[in-house]
Design goal:
Radius of gyration of chain A: 23 Å
CATH superfamily of the largest domain in chain A: serine acetyltransferase, domain 1
Strand order of the largest sheet of chain A: 1-4-7-10-13
CATH architecture of the largest domain in chain A: Orthogonal Bundle
Strand content of chain A: 5-15%
Structural class of chain A: alpha/beta
CATH topology of the largest domain in chain A: serine acetyltransferase, domain 1
Number of helices of chain A: 10
Shape of chain A: globular
Order of helices and strands of chain A: HHHHHHHHHEEEEEEEEEEEEEEH
Number of strands of chain A: 14
Number of domains of chain A: 2
Largest interface: A-B, 60 and 63 residues
Oligomer: homohexamer
Amino acid sequence: MQSFDVDEIVRALREARHEWRDSQNRSREPRGREFPSREALTEIVEALKGALFPMRLGPPDLRHESEDFYVGHTLDAALIGLVLQARLELRYSGRQQALDEAAIDAQADAAVKAFGASLPQIRRLLDSDVLAAYQGDPAARSVDEVLLCYPGVLAMIHHRVAHRLYGLGLPLLARIVAELAHGQTGIDIHPGATIGAGFFMDHGTGVVIGETAVIGERVRLYQAVTLGAKRFPTDAEGHLQKGLPRHPVVEDDVVIYAGATILGRVTLGQGATIGGNVWVTDDVPAGASVTQASLQNRPCP
Amino acid sequence: MQSFDVDEIVRALREARHEWRDSQNRSREPRGREFPSREALTEIVEALKGALFPMRLGPPDLRHESEDFYVGHTLDAALIGLVLQARLELRYSGRQQALDEAAIDAQADAAVKAFGASLPQIRRLLDSDVLAAYQGDPAARSVDEVLLCYPGVLAMIHHRVAHRLYGLGLPLLARIVAELAHGQTGIDIHPGATIGAGFFMDHGTGVVIGETAVIGERVRLYQAVTLGAKRFPTDAEGHLQKGLPRHPVVEDDVVIYAGATILGRVTLGQGATIGGNVWVTDDVPAGASVTQASLQNRPCP
Amino acid sequence: MQSFDVDEIVRALREARHEWRDSQNRSREPRGREFPSREALTEIVEALKGALFPMRLGPPDLRHESEDFYVGHTLDAALIGLVLQARLELRYSGRQQALDEAAIDAQADAAVKAFGASLPQIRRLLDSDVLAAYQGDPAARSVDEVLLCYPGVLAMIHHRVAHRLYGLGLPLLARIVAELAHGQTGIDIHPGATIGAGFFMDHGTGVVIGETAVIGERVRLYQAVTLGAKRFPTDAEGHLQKGLPRHPVVEDDVVIYAGATILGRVTLGQGATIGGNVWVTDDVPAGASVTQASLQNRPCP
Amino acid sequence: MQSFDVDEIVRALREARHEWRDSQNRSREPRGREFPSREALTEIVEALKGALFPMRLGPPDLRHESEDFYVGHTLDAALIGLVLQARLELRYSGRQQALDEAAIDAQADAAVKAFGASLPQIRRLLDSDVLAAYQGDPAARSVDEVLLCYPGVLAMIHHRVAHRLYGLGLPLLARIVAELAHGQTGIDIHPGATIGAGFFMDHGTGVVIGETAVIGERVRLYQAVTLGAKRFPTDAEGHLQKGLPRHPVVEDDVVIYAGATILGRVTLGQGATIGGNVWVTDDVPAGASVTQASLQNRPCP
Amino acid sequence: MQSFDVDEIVRALREARHEWRDSQNRSREPRGREFPSREALTEIVEALKGALFPMRLGPPDLRHESEDFYVGHTLDAALIGLVLQARLELRYSGRQQALDEAAIDAQADAAVKAFGASLPQIRRLLDSDVLAAYQGDPAARSVDEVLLCYPGVLAMIHHRVAHRLYGLGLPLLARIVAELAHGQTGIDIHPGATIGAGFFMDHGTGVVIGETAVIGERVRLYQAVTLGAKRFPTDAEGHLQKGLPRHPVVEDDVVIYAGATILGRVTLGQGATIGGNVWVTDDVPAGASVTQASLQNRPCP
Amino acid sequence: MQSFDVDEIVRALREARHEWRDSQNRSREPRGREFPSREALTEIVEALKGALFPMRLGPPDLRHESEDFYVGHTLDAALIGLVLQARLELRYSGRQQALDEAAIDAQADAAVKAFGASLPQIRRLLDSDVLAAYQGDPAARSVDEVLLCYPGVLAMIHHRVAHRLYGLGLPLLARIVAELAHGQTGIDIHPGATIGAGFFMDHGTGVVIGETAVIGERVRLYQAVTLGAKRFPTDAEGHLQKGLPRHPVVEDDVVIYAGATILGRVTLGQGATIGGNVWVTDDVPAGASVTQASLQNRPCP
């Protein structure tokens, strides 16, 4: 095997890194890798899944006698791991400011404590999602099959965890948790999205739900539905404005069929039905039914 | 690191579990985890892939002299593993009834024996799928590249295995096998779907094929095609009726382009062509070609 | 557990393999498994990601003092591994011809040496993609979040590596690298596609980009966009013609919204905007904006 | 690579197995592998070590708040695993008799329940061993160092577990647990040996303690000490008699230096000291000191 | 964390390597690591153990129906792995000479083929060792316990494999196989030693058996027995002479108790008994019994 | 499976832990596990072995071109890992005192920096040990075989690393490194022992070398040699006195045969030879030869 001039490649890659760091006004002397770890969060989410559903997602040989021991031990490990990741995120996001390390650590501890306390509520919401899927899919045989097999339910476990982290000031952890589900299911829900109880996505591949979307209770989506932004709001000088409401509001009991695209801060009224592949950029009244046919059947000009 | 009140979280999670179990009329004293294992089925499918295609999906150092030893040993381990999973499914599905354990075990054994006997036929069908992909894609360089790289072929290996398990009374195992492929490829084929030889999905991401779909020979699909149900059939009192034919029948030699949606128990006649993004809810005659243009070119009212 | 007649299954599977090998005019005595290994390429790509972005995708405890040691060691292992895979591909593709093993090995060495030398350029292109994503997504908080979380960026790391391998005469390695990203992200870019700097795919699931597509600089795509072939070019006798330009040309600064389908060797002129779910099979002038509405607003016949 | 005639080797090995099975009067149709598993017991002992000493041999990130959750969860898994191994042993040892499977399972359950109940007592004995090592070795810096580093302590953790299993009618499990320590430390204690509190083996490599040895409290041994049988007791017809007392009795506070060999059912009286490399086959009075010199200084005949 | 001057340590270590290579008259440009791999041989020996004793050392779920498939597949992998290691050894040992690579490969193939053919004979010898241990130890409960638990039997599995490799011109592979057992059992048998059927080492730790030792049938040793060389034979100029017989000959039915040391090319006659801790440097007649007492009881001068 | 009363066992184990902590005057509220980790040190030593001998103990595919990259990267990871373990030890040993965390960290950094700087010298000493083994053993075929196969050399790699750590104020890390070798080789060298260049232990199992032993250059030992303390020095009140010289001094070129025991602060003069199984508690003059025979041949009284 011949030489590959590794020395020269190493040198040229170093040069490329320096260019990048200079362009980003970064020191060439970083203190180490500071970003939260995808691998660590993968383990944490696996542990949380077991703690939330011990007899179904926990270890195969778990017995009722020891269920709480398992839950307590697993939770403890998950929360400790989460604290470490939370500190990494808070230090990363605060590195422009002169922040006190002890203050950051206390903030991470408090966030994770609040997160832990909300797990029972998350479990109840997920139970409602499981029931919704079971009741909405004629092919479902049992609630257990739904919990174990449906990618839409997997995506919601991740989302309800990620949404809570997002609300506690840990948007990067939330994002990584969401992307883990995205990679496995093809369902892309931004952790900022607010989603009510009893939510069901059938098939799910290709669903996209944006950061400021608000979804009511008992809503049902099919694959490849988009709840997106129409265009990015800009301020007077044309800069993107972050955080403004720019995704749809979907009220209770709405059904949206495969491939439909809803864009912008529009409202789909309670009980509305949106047909497949339909493109919606205006409000839809409660109870209305919108289909491609209805749009095309508008009189010719 | 401060305390996380793990005791309290454990208590509240236990309460949530009890609520759930009460709502499902389940004993609070389950005997242990009884559902088949995703991890075990992942291993079983890997073993089956090696046994079906030993020189291409088996171990890298396999030699012709020992091909049958490898196939026999691998099959044996896979079938034993499958028996254990089959028993779990049959016990789970039969737990409302007073079933005899020995009878369940015998049923599992018989199902797995029949499954094993059908593997040569599955191999022949998969060979026809590989050939169809090779012949249908100008970018394909060899049949081996197709077998090893094409997600559509991976999805069909899973489907043909899952469909056989489904036919042998093991729908949960079948479902898990199907979801394993769904997670890796974004292709969602219900194990109940009947698919003929020489089936080819190009790109594939987003394809959805429903439980009662029937597909003939030499059919070709592109990405994001849906063969779905128009609406769920309900009985007189409005309850969902399970198992009724509600997905399309696709006859031999049909081609369906990307994003097309075919809904309900309609028939696409032999040799028909369905254009991209088209929405079809009626029968299409043999040999016909349906495109968005053709739909829009219908005279204005 | 009863007998499964493993002997008989093994016999019947052998028969099926022999049928296949006969149908493919292959010897029944292959010398061993000769195809490149998906597992080996998975490791190689992981190593390349670390060598390209050591402080962000390398090991968590990397320090600046030892950055170059890490890069050099990791690169060396990756390039050696790549040489072995390149030899496998070249032997495989050349097995019909009477090729000299030493010549194949020298060709593999030379290709990998050229590949290594192009890594700094690949790093610069990827930096431009990261910046484009950061600037184009109001939800992005930092360039590091983009690099670590965005599936579109992951797909581009794979694509820029795969495209280089494709250009160096290693299309199978390139294809496997591309499929690894396809499986994780649902984004399907053929390694042959030419893509300029500053490319951004938002959400990305379901994007398909064909082999002969040519994309300029600063182009932005949303999920489920297809840049495909209208139909396969055939020669006078109806055989598929491989390698002919059959996918779109997308000029600089074009934006294509979710679900749009562009088919055939058409050109989207500089700065054009293509709306969501639109179906385009003709050239679009520079600066033009095409939407479903604009298509439907064409006068009735 | 040439052929290795694997078929022929397989045939000849089968013949050798059949010879063996015939010579052992065994059916050629065993039902499967029935012996307890070394791997399973390795895991079980690791878990027991963690449950016995959670903050020192448990997971590195364990916190006081969750100590009991960890202990309970780990114990539960270990005891369940132990039940499965106990059933294997009892079925194996009972396979000549027509035993009721349910009776065997109940016996295994009862043995493991009794084993679990004795763990707190085992912990207290091990604490006394740790203290003895700390007090007896001038090089020891802390009790924690002793627990974590001293092979003699590791051997005693295994022995005290193995001895309890031995007493509960599980001699094979006990033997495997003992051999695991033998392999790691070179210390070979038969699980039948009775050993009092505060036992300390310094260095330890080469120590051998036989099945019927009885050791009092606060005994100290150095490396390569043997407490063995002088000769095997035989009955009138010359058959080995199993289970008869044939190893030494060592009373409280005895010290035995390196390389000493004590053989047969002799008694070393309380507080006796046995010098290095000495060979003892007779009783030694309490308080006596035996050295090579003292033996050689006996008057010439 | 401060800087560790890694650059400087790397430089100084390089200097130390160059000194060493110069002192050994080696090129500073080695072609890569060429020594056989301890890890590879560990796997190969594990596979051989399974192939030799499939129902006891093979996989836990093996069934009689598939025993031969397992043996054949496992053997094949082991023999292929062994060929690669044999080539490494032969190239290494032949690197001073101008050897033909193809000739080396053929030699490796032939050696491994002969090794494979001798496995049935090795199995029979090991069966005789297992029986000898069972019959010789009153604590043994079954032949299966002996095979699975006794370190002396483990050492003999390694030795009988290693001795065969040694005889086939692969002394380095043999040595590594022997050292693997030495590390696990504390029993150090040089692969050159010739050992007859029915050999039993009780306890075993500390046994040392030299390269040219010759041991008959039904010999029994206890722990810490040495069969060593008295002094190294040197030639006229005082250089060590390799390969000369310099270790004891032990005839059939000899018993040697713990700690005895037999040095030099002496013969222990058939049926002799050597007591514990005895030091022997002269021939012992057949049937004689040598003890420390008998040596010390020689009349005073 | 019946209940195991896990709750009750957990309670009783907690009680046993509290008793222990009370007896040791420890708080019941430890802050977490604080002892250095055996697993971490196992990895660190593996990395150091690779960095010291890259082409022989490093990765199998290492090439000369990248040797320094490998060494630098591996060293960096090992030294970082060592700093973390050093901090754990220093905090543990200082927990009775009110120590400043920053001061501890600086002390750990400095110790590891000094350790790193001494690695080239350690490499040179180990080269001398390898040469000594090669020259002293007629069975050795090459220096590479010695480095890779001889347990005595493995023990010396660990010892020379451990001794340096011991000298830098990290006795616990040193002890763990030493015990790792003890477990693998049966050779027990206290890290405090001072050992000159060219040291060779043949076979080695059972060798024990005490904390204050001092060994010159070119010394050779055989298996089961003990360099121990005669008795523990006590002060006026009978307390053990730690750290006093209490083990032998062995001058240059001494040879000690198997099983010899040298006890107390005696001196074996330059070039002395100690025979097998001999017991020495007095000084031996330079050049003298001591054997059992010579001791026994002393005139009768």
